[in-house]
Each structure stands twice: as C-alpha cells, then as structure tokens.
Amino acid sequence: MESVMGRETLLKKINDLLDSKKAEDISVLDVRGLTSLADYFVIASANSDVHARALADYVEEEVKKTLKEVPHHVEGKELGRWVVLDYGDTIVHIMLPDVRDYYGIDWLWSDAKKIEFNKENQKEENKENS
User: Disulfide: which of 38, 71, 80, 109 matches 91 by Cβ 3.0-4.6 Å?
Assistant: First the structure.
C-alpha cells in the first residue's frame, strides 16, 4: 500500500470534489495501523439520498476522468443512505447524517490521524484566477 504522499492526489481530489458539491462534515482519515480494510477513509455527509447518489456519481466520474482510477466496488447507491466507493487502499463513505450518527463512524475512527487540506490556499488561488 502507498504512503500518504503517494495517495495525496487522490485524497485531495475526492475531498475537493465532495466540497464542491456541498457535502458536509468531510473527514479524511489515515487509518493505517487501525484496520486492515484500508489505509485511508474519506467520510462525508449528504443532505438527502438523492444528494448522496449524486455525490458518489460525481466522485466516481471525475476521479475516473482525471486520475484514471475506478472503484473496485461500489455499495449502497440504490438506497443512497450510505454509499461506499472502494478504491482499494482508500474507501469513501457518503452518508446521511442520521446514519452517520447511528453508526458512530466518527467515534469509531476517532484514533485515526486527520488529514487536512489547506482551504486558504484554495481560496487564494480562486481569487487570483478571478
């Protein structure tokens, strides 16, 4: 499995895509050493099942288009309450807030290291490009 630097492009891309489509409470977590399921989790909340499906579709399409990566497995799109995109060492969870709270996913992975992307730089770049 790759280092955080090796996956930073994918993690940042997913984070930015989710943010651009109004996902809420986005967390990018380094779960290496805590689970054998994956190295990184991206967790985000959607405001409806339609929004969750739209977010998942958008991430899937844009990651494929820009990074040439497709998920190994996709789960939960039919209902849209908890959609999982499995990119091998990176798993994306898009959930409705009540589902996220019910399963306590943030508490479950509270020992994971949070990976932060500098939004100030993004704002600066956006101002310069205006």
Answer: 38
3-state helix, strand, coil in the chain (%, to 5): 45, 20, 35
pLDDT digits (tens, 9 = 90+) for 87-110: 999 999 999 999 999 999 999 999
Superfamily of structural domain 4-129: Beta Polymerase, domain 2 (3.30.460.10)
CA gyration radius, the chain: 14
| Strand spans (E) along the chain | 24-30, 40-45, 73-75, 82-86, 90-95, 113-114
Residue with tokens 């490009």: 129
Name the pTM for this structure: 0.86
